[in-house]
Amino acid sequence: MPPPVKHRLAELFKAGLAAVQPRLLLEQHATIVGEYWRYDGPGSPLEVALPATGNIHVCGAGKAVVPFATGLIHSLGNRFHSGLLVTKTGHSEACDHRLRVLEASHPVPDSSSQIAANELEQYLSQVTPDDVVFFLLTGGASSLLAAPVQDLSLTDKQDVTRLLLSSGADIHAINSVRKHLSRLKGGHVARLVSPARLVTLAVSDVIGDDPHSIGSGPTVPDPSTFADSVAILQQRGLYDQLPVPVRACLEQGQAGQRPETPKPGDECFRNTSFTLLARLADALAVIENEVRQGGVFVHRLENFLQGDVETCATRLMDVLANLALNPLRPLLLLAGGEPTVEPNGTGKGGRMQHLALLLAAALAGREGVVGLAAGTDGTDGPTDAAGAFFTSDTLLRARALGIDPEQRLRDFDTYPLFAALGDHLLTGPTGTNVMDIVMIWVPE
């Protein structure tokens, strides 16, 4: 693989990540002015009155929530009282001694997720009406907080999550169902904290940046219903596979025998606000601007990576074929989003590494084309890689090492292939999460 291009793509990815770092955004754009906390950076300007007698709490969940909180506390200084955060195992870091950090499982919740959710629920239940609660959300919050409603066990919720993930359901569908099986999701945190002031700061990891879907919307009104959850599960042929208690819960909700999630207009949202600090579009814009300054033609596809990963690969190649018929200058195809994958093998990999190998196969024979497919949180599936670089000779180089690329695709075992080629992008936890980015560089 041409080292200069590979290095350039890695640098562009790094530049995109820098634009969506909540810690940096808060350290640079948030401050206390008089009796107000103010934020005037990317996203909507925000002003929050500091409590005269109450305390300021910092809580939240997500894979990037710890550095997020560090940035916020930097701006709050000694006005900050205490807080509780939940993050993915391995994603915690040194932070303020007034913060308690719990680690939990992702993407499928386990007992640690339930313990963390219970601890957060207990912490928030002690908030007084005079307090201010900053609630931080980044990708992964839904799985990290498992608080099943009455009559449901953690195993019930685990089974539902696995069924939805294996069906290829997108995050909107998954979250719609999870909200109606949870004590915290779908606006229930707002109900728990009310009437205290609740300020939500979020980094979007969902296509469309819908506040109802980010972290399953624990602090905002939930427009979905029990009936919507049933429809999603029935449409995917999953309803009859549900644990009996889950079916009973959903049917009781449809019949009005269980309370719905809080809806728009509910009194619990009277003293709340929601601000989106960072999103995929911000990262893509920075990458595009940097590349254009070098005289390269950029074709940007925002929220393009949706649906099955194989379909995404085909669509990307179709776009590339139409763009690169007679290029007069270098071209960068830039796409973002979050495809789904339905692993049916026993191998090790993730959706971005799987997509990278699919694109490498489709690019065979296109000399000089180099690409990168990576997740902005720094982890692709259950691996330590953010993603992988690929080129038209990826398959040839793999076969030269005795590796069968087609078999690796069938087994969903792409991680060992890219490890053998030295083509992984290894970033570690990045401090943010705005879905996935694909870059394909086509020379003149």
Walkthrough of the structure:
The model has no long low-confidence stretch (mean pLDDT 94). The longest helix has 16 residues, at 3-18. The protein has helices at residues 3-18, 22-29, 65-76, 111-125, 141-144, 154-166, 171-179, 188-193, 226-235, 244-254, 280-292, 309-323, 351-362, 394-400, 405-410, 414-421, and strands spanning 30-33, 36-39, 46-49, 56-61, 80-88, 99-104, 132-137, 197-203, 272-278, 297-305, 331-337, 370-375, 387-391, 424-425, 436-442. The chain has 444 residues and is α/β, with parallel strands linked by helices. The chain has 2 domains: 21-147 and 182-224 and 261-278, 3-Layer(aba) Sandwich (Rossmann fold); 281-442, MOFRL domain (glycerate kinase, domain 1), CATH 3.40.1480. 37% of the residues lie in helices and 20% in strands. α12 crosses α13. Strands 6-5-4-7-8-9 form a 6-stranded parallel β-sheet, sandwiched between helices. It is built from 16 helices and 15 strands. It is globular, with a radius of gyration of 22 Å.
Q: What is the compact description of this entry?
A:
This protein has helices at residues 3-18, 22-29, 65-76, 111-125, 141-144, 154-166, 171-179, 188-193, 226-235, 244-254, 280-292, 309-323, 351-362, 394-400, 405-410, 414-421; strands at residues 30-33, 36-39, 46-49, 56-61, 80-88, 99-104, 132-137, 197-203, 272-278, 297-305, 331-337, 370-375, 387-391, 424-425, 436-442.
